[in-house]
């Protein structure tokens, strides 16, 4: 009987000891779904990239490292139509190509003076000025000459005499015409277009010979 009491007391003491140990042990709270996702993100970021392979760069960081000037140049290159006319391979055959292509602005568009080409017609051999529209690549043919209209009160004769590389072709009260060598005509056109005394300046069209019927 005394043994049974001792066993009962020992069992009770053991149960109390186990309960006390359980109570004193720290218990971690269960991870929520959000905490689990955060743990996975942290652990993934902490893993170094394999040897020999560069670590991935975030999209935001990659964009920030591109200089603004480079982005602007790329945007311009994408938005500006490529003109095959600027390619020397697309140059027309010319009797006299200019060593330096001259650019002029006509009607808000950029044109280039390429040189001259000799053609034979009813008037004999004629030297034709070749111009190219840099937007479309279209070629135009003119005389190597300019027609200018001056403001009222300006004297055509004295004005033309003062122009470099120009020779008088024709003058009347309404306009004057000058011949200019192809090597200088682009610069002469630009100078006249910016002169406050000049109302209008144009390349003179080709004189088409009349055919007898």
How would you describe the overall organization of this protein?
The protein has 213 residues and is α+β, with helices and mostly antiparallel strands. It has 6 helices and 7 strands. Strands 1, 2, 3, 4, 5, 6 and 7 form a 7-stranded antiparallel β-sheet that branches. The protein is rod-shaped, with a radius of gyration of 44 Å. 13% of the residues are buried. About 27% of the residues have low confidence.
What class would the helix/strand composition place it in?
alpha+beta
Q: How much helical structure, as a percent, in the residues? A: 25-40%
Given the C-alpha coordinates, what overall shape results? rod-shaped
* Helix count from the secondary structure assignment: 6
| Rounded Rg | 44 Å
Which spans of ≥5 residues are poorly predicted at pLDDT below 50? 30-87
**Can you summarize the main beta sheet?**
7 strands, antiparallel
Order of helices and strands: HHHHEEEEHEEHE
Tell me the strand percentage band: 25-35%
**Tally of extended strands?**
7
Say what oligomer this is: single chain
Mean pLDDT: 73
- The end-to-end span amounts to 153 Å
């Amino acid at each position: 009987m005394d043994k049974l009491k001792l066993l009962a007391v020992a069992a009770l003491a053991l149960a109390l000891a186990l309960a006390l140990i359980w109570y004193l042990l720290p218990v971690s709270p269960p991870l929520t779904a959000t905490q689990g996702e955060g743990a996975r993100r942290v652990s993934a970021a902490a893993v170094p990239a394999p040897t020999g392979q560069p670590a991935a760069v975030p999209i935001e960081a990659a964009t920030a490292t591109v200089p603004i000037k480079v982005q602007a140049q790329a945007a311009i290159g994408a938005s500006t139509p490529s003109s095959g006319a600027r390619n020397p391979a697309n140059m027309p055959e010319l009797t006299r190509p200019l060593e330096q292509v001259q650019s002029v602005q006509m009607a808000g568009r950029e044109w280039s003076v390429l040189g001259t080409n000799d053609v034979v017609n009813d008037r004999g051999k004629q030297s034709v000025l070749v111009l190219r529209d840099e937007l479309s690549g279209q070629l135009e043919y003119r005389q190597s000459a300019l027609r200018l209209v001056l403001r009222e009160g300006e004297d055509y004769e004295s004005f033309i005499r003062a122009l470099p590389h120009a020779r008088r072709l024709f003058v009347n009260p309404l306009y004057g015409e000058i011949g200019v060598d192809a090597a200088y005509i682009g610069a002469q056109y630009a100078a006249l277009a910016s002169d406050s005394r000049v109302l209008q300046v144009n390349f003179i069209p080709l004189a088409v010979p009349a055919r007898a019927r």
